[in-house]
């Protein structure tokens, strides 16, 4: 790691068989680019994923697939630290300490906890409640300067900042207080079937989300079915959530501006536009899908990458954890 560069930490959950186009456009695509200017640490946050029920065999398969997909999307496991959260024990250990610097009331106010506990009423477990503390540990263990996140994670990052400040206030300046890094464009890709809602892996309607690993026909079919309003012009306008979403996706993927996209489809109808977006997205994803499938055939290579990633992650966080243990008053282990 280059000491002159700032450190970026981000995590993604391994749930579902692939990331959505929303995860890709809003997060993972940018993670690759950030490697040029920052020291980057990226984690498949499997510990977080078990806060909702998982089928073990599927979780294992999805986790490995997610890891390969990060690489397929341009994250270089040599340049960046890329690992499974569960392979670095420091996350869970630091999380325990930080939980003693977090108030019950603060965690009760987290909107994601409120939403998820309303949705999974049969499994409102303590992990779901302390989820944001583990996320704070992920970030603070590396003294990350910047954390790329979607807007839905802003409240969690704010909490991480508060925990860092509280710890620093008690024990003297120690943790870096992290800043959110929220990409300007395409941060909020919406569901294709309900464009007022975010595109999400947990969407019940499978046509709402396009997955990075969907094949060409599936991608095109989903875009053809995308819900749009009663208008017909390809123009970005307030209240036209459906068409705005498609214009955003097309612009981000092609690198064209909204205006250029509008001009390109001037006089053409929604049908033609939807097909064009579908084809463009499918062509963009094809090489990622190919890279992913060849990586999945080389389990040995993947293993080398994540073993090395975990070792590098651990070497950074063990230093932090040792200092934290000393600061809170534990007897030195060595
Ligand atoms: N909670 C994040 C999400 O669901 C994932 C995550 C876990 C994360 N730990 C993190 C993101 C640390 C950024 C930094 O999107």
Question: Can you describe what's shown?
Answer:
The protein is mainly α and 334 residues long. It has 2 domains: 7-182 and 299-328, HUPs (Rossmann fold), CATH 3.40.50; 206-293, Tyrosyl-Transfer RNA Synthetase (Orthogonal Bundle). It has helices spanning 21-34, 46-49, 56-72, 90-99, 104-108, 111-119, 126-140, 154-171, 216-224, 241-254, 258-264, 270-296, 299-328, and strands at residues 7-12, 39-44, 81-84, 146-148, 179-181. The strands form 2 sheets. Strands 1-2-3 form a 3-stranded parallel sheet. The radius of gyration is 21 Å and the shape is globular. The structure holds tryptophan (TRP). Tryptophan binds at residues 9-11, 13, 45, 48, 135, 138-139, 147, 149, 153. Residues 9-11, 13, 45, 48, 135, 138-139, 147, 149, 153 line the site of tryptophan.
Average pLDDT metric: 95
CATH superfamily of the largest domain: HUPs
Rg (CA only): 21 Å
Fraction in beta strands: 5-15%
Segments where pLDDT lies below 50 for 5+ residues?
none
- The CATH class of the largest domain turns out to be Alpha Beta
CATH-defined topology of the largest domain: Rossmann fold
Tell me, what's the shape?
A: globular
Structural class: mainly alpha
Bound small molecules, by name, code or SMILES, are:
tryptophan
Number of helices: 13
The string of secondary-structure elements, in order, is EHEHHEHHHHEHEHHHHH
Helix content: 40-55%
C-alpha end-to-end distance: 27 Å
Largest sheet: 3 strands, parallel
Q: How many domains in all?
A: 2
Strand order of the largest sheet: 1-2-3
CATH architectural label of the largest domain: 3-Layer(aba) Sandwich
Count every beta strand, where a strand is a DSSP E run of 2 or more residues: 5
